[in-house]
Amino acid sequence: MKRQDFYFDLPEALIAQQPTSERRASRLLVLQGTALHDKQFVDILDFIQPNDLLVFNNTKVIPARLFGKKMTGGQVELLIERIISDHQALCHIRSSKSPKPGTKLVIEDAFEVEVTGRQGALFLVTFDPTKTPLEWVEAYGHMPLPPYIERADTDADKNRYQTVYASRPGAVAAPTAGLHFDEDILAAIKAKGTDIGFVTLHVGAGTFKPVQVDDINQHTMHSEWLEVQPGLVEQVKAARAKGGRVIAVGTTSVRCLESASQHGELRPYTGDTDIFITPGYQFQQVDVLLTNFHLPESTLIMLVSALAGYDNTMNAYRHAVEQRYRFFSYGDAMLVFNQASLS
């Protein structure tokens, strides 16, 4: 298929710049085969059954954006992509000129880092050893809001651009489908007898990387670190044994479950994945997906199309635009059923 096949016209006014007043205040578009249902997010409880298993991504967004200057006075911006040791991280760096190895940067007039190398498009940065990179960003970093949110981060984003169950620091972008859940909805899900499990995928800035080739089969997918623990594997088996469904909360949970099923069955897995899910992919684990609305021509709308069917997905997106749903990270949600399980 072609990248242009996944284009839709999105008015800029529909790109959510702020979160809703409450996490649960968003809308929910339910896509079941060709059927569309306009709901509120709290109505998700009507579509969850007692024997189901909801799989959440428990990654925690770190305040990964740092502002500073070169010794010559030039302004720089660092975005940590991945912390790789107690003193080093791989970073994106924006400045008037790319810094060379050996360049020292002063961050927030508080501490120094040194550019010590390159790994492809990323810079290897060594931090002041008196603290770990995570400790430095926790003290001086800014929440890395997505590029389509055209404002500076605020203190409110430290809470709202984070799921209520986030526990494992490492992401530089939120698993946004989880932003709609509050503690009361989670309690209501458990009260129904529905199981809840967790995977970890540290979302990288590559999630915003556009597809630039016409033939999507030629796209090089970004890599992200994930972990599927043995306990989650057992939860999936238990849900299947009871006739329940696996409901992935977010495309990152899908990437975890499907990456850990590459040998035909779900197994514990820790490591990187560059899985690229497009129409024609045969899902091994996911029956239902909760997700937000994604960018035109993005790898994420391609994943949704693989699950729900291309025509169904594009029709749902046209409907969402017509009904003025809010798009992207702080936007509304979709509950998408695997078309294969509906037939």
Key phrases:
alpha/beta; QueA-like; Thrombin, subunit H; 2 domains; 9-stranded mixed sheet; 6-stranded antiparallel beta barrel; globular
What does this 3D model show about the protein?
The chain is built from eight helices and 17 strands. It is an alpha/beta fold and 343 residues long. It has two domains: 243 residues, 3-Layer(aba) Sandwich (QueA-like), CATH 3.40.1780; 76 residues, QueA-like (Thrombin, subunit H, Beta Barrel). The strands form three sheets. Strands 2-1-17-16-14-3-12-13-15 form a nine-stranded mixed sheet. A six-stranded antiparallel beta barrel has the order 5-6-7-10-9-8. A two-stranded parallel ribbon has the order 4-11. The relative contact order is 0.21.
